Fold this sequence. Notes:
Layout: H1 8-18, E1 25-30, H2 38-50, E2 54-59, H3 69-77, E3 89-91, E4 94-96, H4 100-103, E5 113-116, E6 122-125, E7 131-133, H5 135-141
Amino acid sequence: xxxxxxxxxxxxxxxxxxxxxxxxxxxxxxxxxxxxxxxxxxxxxxxxxxxxxxxxxxxxxxxxxxxxxxxxxxxxxxxxxxxxxxxxxxxxxxxxxxxxxxxxxxxxxxxxxxxxxxxxxxxxxxxxxxxxxxxxxxxxxxxxxxxxxxxxxx
Length: 154
């Protein structure tokens, strides 16, 4: 199954076309440096969403670090992701799991598309919150057949 057909991104684009509006894509670079003022990140994201933009993240972070806990869990249940929970918090000298929405600005979570900057993954958000992999990207990157992506989607 093509993960784009029923995706959140495709839905946004169809709405824009139906209303005679231009199509917009915002590609946001989310890396491991400081993300700035969380309220500003949320305000920018809200404005882009209000204008009908498809929000794509290009990130050097692992994909689960820019997903809400709910999206992460749905993606794991869908078989699209088999990475451990993100360890964003600290307990003494150890890294521990903290739900991203408790630690990260809301504006940098749950983009419509998440692209790993190393070119290994493109994940596409579905209406239920799960992400599905772009299998063409996996094929081109030479990752087809890896256990974490061995599930076929109806």
